[in-house]
Amino acid sequence: MKLCFFFFFFFTFFTFALASNVSYDGRSLIIDGQRKLLISASIHYPRSVPAMWPGLVQTAKEGGADVIETYVFWNGHELSPGNYYFGGRFDLVKFAKIVQEAKMYLILRIGPFVAAEWNYGGVPVWLHYVPGTVFRTYNKPFMYHMQKFTTYIVNLMKQEKLFASQGGPIILSQIENEYGYYEKFYGDDGKKYALWAAKMAVSQNIGVPWIMCQQWDAPDPVIDTCNSFYCDQFTPTSPNRPKMWTENWPGWFKTFGGRDPHRPAEDVAFSVARFFQKGGSVHNYYMYHGGTNFGRTAGGPFITTSYDYDAPIDEYGLPRLPKWGHLKELHRAIKLCERVLLNGKSVNITLSPSVEADVYTDSSGGCAAFIANIDDKNDKTVEFRNASYHLPAWSVSILPDCKNVVFNTAKVTSQTNTIAMIPENLQQSNKGVKTLQWDVLEEKPGIWGKADFVKNGFVDHINTTKDTTDYLWHTTSIIVGEKEEFLKNGSKPILLIESKGHALHAFVNQIYQGTATGNGSHSAFTYKNPISLRPGKNEITLLSLTVGLQTAGPFYDFVGAGLTSVKIKGLNNETLDLSSYAWTYKIGVQGEHLKIYQQDGLNSVKWTSTSEPPVGKPLTWYKAVVDAPPGDEPVGLDMLHMGKGLAWLNGEEIGRYWPRISEFKNEDCVEKCDYRGKFNPDKCDTGCGQPTQQWYHVPRSWFKPSGNVLVIFEEKGGDPRKISFLRRKVSGLCSLVAEDYPSVGLLAEGEDKMENNKNVPFARLTCPSNTLISAIKFASFGTPSGTCGSYLKGDCHDPNSSIVVEKACLNKNDCVIKLTEENFKTSLCPGLSRTLAVEAVCS
Fold it and tell me: Is 121:127 a contact under the CB 8 Å cutoff?
């Protein structure tokens, strides 16, 4: 019986044929005549690299996902009108075929507006400058180009036979994105546009349903869907549409200068279980792997280069444990209920205040139940079907047979991984210690080459650069008379600058004076610093910066940036207003213009070679030939000791770096997060007073065997001698399992707890491939306390704990330790809740 159950579970959970017919009704998607309960994982192809795609997709599948979801990034594909690009990270067809080869479905969110913390919401900047264009409303230029691009993508997918109707993996496609929030701002044209977009999409005849998320007036046959931290209470606007959750946010994004948000695994699992408890059928994690905003693709403004998102798979491609593992067990439990959930009828039962059960039964006698305790403080014990069940606060128990709890969202049995960033000194080589040779190029502040234009007053930064660069130079000059009082008394005039965003560096007479910046959603800022002036002519040079363009909001395409006022206070004539002066403008910096970070441009300038590169020098380019870090672990670049700028490896864009210190105080962060209660992005933050981002992902596939060229452009001054590569690896792991924890994971090994009424909890430890459990740092069965890395023995402790664990695990890649009388003294400390805590080393 156990063997039969195992094979049934294995093939129903892990395999399915790709679709040919996709339809829906008010309960679920129907694929080739079968109702489907689907778990989807967002992985954005340009936020990783092709070499990573197969591994990411496979890790999502191993985590219990049936579906991969991605946006289509318009501004990465249509570089100028009619000029399309689908190479490298933007090879959409290759990505779709990798999903297909993994025997997974694909949800293609064409948009083509995506938001997604992506620069300009994914819409090409050039479209803003097509005369008469207004984004995302009933505007003919915008609608023309939007339809043209949508049709291009649809035809490309059809050509490659990637829609399910052609035997491909694409089962759903999306038009527009979260427009319901903003429709009202555009008046009647907003509603007309939304209806037009839906009709235009349906006319593409792709043979699979279209969806619109957060669109409360989506017309049939388009399905409206939910995006939120919780969607259990969401109801589609038509009873003929299934309940779908296109974005469950398992974390949140970061901004330079902000905090590091985390969403506990227990709360993510709670939200998912509640969604399926309340009739949901399609669920997508946004993000399942966040990845990296390489180059200048981050929007915001101020979105970090890292788009890790506290997702189940981290930025570097490693499973984030325990979150990934906890959700994997959740998915297994939900899948055990699939047939009854989708084909049965449900009854809601109130068991006590804040505790309710939803019971599903079908005509064959099948039964599945979800029991939820939505009290965010108090555990509850309830009677259900003549049995007693204990539910921690803010948790859901899943009973696939209406009897046995195989999973509780608050009880994490998955191991916790300890991640280490192992530094590789750039001064080292495989042959021993060497002195790294740097090539240096210093740019002068201000106008290089020929000025682009001169204008009295200020221009909008974005309208001037059209986002071809982050940088726009402004220069002017003033005459300081010899009788100025500050020259005699030693005081300094104050430079006062106002800007609508995003940042600037100030120079006077070629000397760096300081930096000012906006913060997060507040782009506007004021610069106020003393400056050194001399008698006679003084040059005022300001480098205005953008740090990613707006990504969403009503009329976001008209949000500007740049200087609005420049004054000098402290002169004899009081305050000197330079705002209406004649300013000379230059777009970009010279090295970027010459593309000296690429192979073809490296020799277009004269570099100065040195083993002692300048430190604290603004506007400096650094170049070095570096070795690839040994091994095959993911690689990061440590930029903690640099200021702000851009980095490249072998011409590939690593992205903006900026180890900006979080401006939040320690009391705004938490040491330990309480998962109970509704989550918000400020609830479980860390990193207050710390650098927002220290490490920058450099994909392994970008390295050559030798001769790797690292190029850095430093804007305000740093210490390149302290730059280092790091290898990201799992150094250790922990498991903390209590006797009363359900262990649905054993089902995958053929242990039929339903049939034998067994529920043996266990600890499972798994090191990364090619590594073994080399040591057990801690093991205690009894009442241990603490967290991973700081466990302590309690008064109740089985002295044989270490012996049992070492026997089961040492020198193995994977091991299971069951909490049975055979292994431990389960009669120890009667009346106490006993736990097994283990910490191990992988090497």
Answer: no
